[in-house]
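I would like you to sit down with the record closing this message with an eye to the fold:
=====
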Amino acid sequence: MASPSPSARARLRAGLVAAEPQALEDPRVHVSLGGLRALEGRARALSFAPRQPARSAMNGRHASRLRGRGLTFEELRAYVPGDDVRSIDWKATARMGEPFVRVTTEERDRPALIVVDQRMSMFFGSVLNMKAVTAAEAAALAAFRIRDQGDRVGGIVFGDAHLAEIRPARGRVSLDRFLSALAEANGMLAADAPNPSPMPLNRVLRAVARIAPRNHLVIVLSDFDAVDAETRLLVSTLSRRNDLVLGLVSDPFADELPKGLRLVVSDGELQAEVNTADRGAHRSLREMTRGRLAEILDWQRSLGVPVLPLTAAEETVPQMRRLMGLAPRPAAAGAR
């Protein structure tokens, strides 16, 4: 369909002609700003606080507990009856010859940085959603809940050729900027889009370290395509200085890779055709994908970083509730 002329667009903006109805975008393929905003009500039950339900994936045997807000030292004063004995500063007590307590106050908030992968490797889904949609919806749910807890929210949204930084801040404006950047990046994904060199995840993690040097809640939602030894080192460093949560987004296609397909794989510069009818090629491709997922999941054990396994084959809200140890509930009509 030909685009309207400048004069026609001006009449449209002035309300002199009716706008043509727009084709509805499939929400399993692309998110919309309105669709992300509609998730606000369903985020209230989620929690990224230090105390997690017993069944929460962030309270598991190998997952580190979230530290939560830090404590700021206020003063050192003499002990008075009724003070909590756990607050006694034993070094000062020994030095002064009488009991002294340390007075601290909880930090007013804990800034959060939500990092969302919207590269072309995320524009894939074999059952329900594109991986990019699952990541975007999970990010919106986290952003709404963290803001409701009174913390500042910001984020990094990155594709293959662009990176948007939203510094953590209070208020609806910052949250809307994050959701808008997310919807815009997701809308750029298309099967016929140019295929630039993928943005290295390490570059993004270095940006995270710059924006969140310490005492942040950092949530990274990605398929973690193309990780290496430096990625692990960056993740380890971030986890020592912040509360780090990894959302590993995958699709069951890797485990159920059909035989007899001809796939074209590319790193942005070179490309090759892989015929899965070849048993050796089929096995190698499946082992490569499974190995990457296993490596990220192992970071939970070796680095103490909570890893939330998210699948594009299920609706986002129910699995987020399940990962947070919450009982399932009937989905609202039209909600994802």
